[in-house]
Amino acid sequence: MRFNKRRNKKMTRLQIMGIIGLLIMIGAGVYLYTIYSSVSKAVETMHQPIDRKTTDQRKNIAHAESDEVSDENRKPFSVLLLGVDARPGDKGRSDTMIVMTVNPELNSTKMVSIPRDTRTRIVGKGFDDKINHAYAFGGAQMSIDTVEEFLNIPIDYFVQVNMEGFEDIVNAVGGVTVDNTLTFSQGGYDFQEGEIDLNGNKALAYVRMRKEDPNGDFGRQQRQRQVIQGVINKGRSFSSITKLDEILEALSKNVKTNLTLREMADIQKHYKNASKDIQQLQLTGTGTIIDKIYYQIIPEEEKQKVQNELQMHLGDSSPVSSPN
């Protein structure tokens, strides 16, 4: 009888543990489904497909024949980041234009800012103008086509951020830390030289300052890249998981991209180590007035140097054929 009682107690404990384990599994499954559902809805809101023939030809991560990208067939890819100041009744202009190339084999990312006043041919219009006007003429599509021709590399993806909502994104990840190289005041805030913490409002003021910077727009570009790198670093940290709802809400309201949910998942799984080594490049030019309009003129040798470095990072030295 005692043996049976002990056996029954043991069976009862095992059954209870089994039930608890089952409940934990069910709870975890519901939680994971909720996360997936929330992410899916946010990505659906952000998604804006565009025509990318160069990406199709390159068979990049978005066009792998398998459902998932394996370690063996990972390929480099490029992203155009557009920071847009939209105006009521106007598309606005892409005052921030940053190209990122990601190489999974080298585990590195290169980031280069294009000065907004850069004079170049606007693809689809056929005349020279400031490169940030491409967005006003034809949105993300024309910006991508113009940047492809200007840098002579294929642009696989774009991420367009509403700069007015950029502060929401910074707040959602819990703020960022940057190494400030210049003491200045902007937007009611004082920024001291050295390592500083920025919330959303401060980050927006920090990246917008230009007039007090002896390097002008080039200094502002450097601050923009600093904040973007800070957001990337925070986004891949464990602490960001606890802020998932805030991050998704901020992204869905302020971001447009042609990346799909599967592509984002592939990048997170197979390319995340490349974000640990972000190398910043700089396009430098000279200011000039043409027909009473200010432009930045990038010397051909300067442009060629950046083109070569990005092409090598993408593993492709062949030129890009742009639309007329």
Query: Helices and strands: which structural class?
Result: alpha+beta
**Order of helical and strand elements:** HHEEEEEHEHEEEEHHHEHEEEH
Taking pLDDT < 50 over at least 5 consecutive residues as the criterion, the unreliable ranges are 28-33, 62-67
Strand portion: 15-25%
Question: Could you describe the 3D structure shown?
Answer:
By secondary structure, the chain is an alpha+beta fold. The chain has helices spanning 2-46, 53-58, 133-151, 166-172, 200-208, 217-235, 244-254, 261-270, 300-314, and strands at 77-87, 90-103, 108-113, 119-122, 127-130, 157-162, 176-180, 184-186, 189-191, 194-198, 255-257, 278-282, 286-290, 293-297. The protein has two domains: 1-46; 49-314, LCP protein (Aminopeptidase). Helices cover 44% and strands 24% of the residues. The model is unreliable at 28-33 and 62-67 (pLDDT under 50). Its main location: membrane. Residues 34-324 are extracellular. Pathway: Cell wall biogenesis. This is Polyisoprenyl-teichoic acid--peptidoglycan teichoic acid transferase TagU.
